[in-house]
Sequence to fold (142 residues):
Amino acid sequence: MQAKIIEVGPERLGEYAGIPIKLEVKQRLEVELVEGGLGGMRLHQVEVEKPYVKDYDSYGDVPTDWPKKFDISNWGFFLAMVGERLAGGAAVAFNTNEVIMLEDRKDGLCCGTCGWSLHSEEWGSRYSSTQPSGPENGAADK
Fold:
């Protein structure tokens, strides 16, 4: 079945919050500098010695609280749907002083993902993912 990625507004953060972000870490990315970094970088997946579980839901910082904690006017929210089933989501923060990960940059993005993590390319291939759609592309949100 084909997956579709849709842009949604903050009123749908409750759905976004329903996607668990608990995952088992079995691999990590190792950076290889090409020509001392002048030729770029290569990323290699490396097995971790002892797999472990990372549970971001256990921290208590839930997406439905974000509008109370941050100015989300520069944020984008996306849901991945497989038919009528919610399969994943992503939040993109831009130009938000309260978000430490942006390091006071105005041109940087901070992306948080739920459900698809670094496996988004594999996930997209598996579900024949389509391009993001939203009101600006003529698609209506539910």
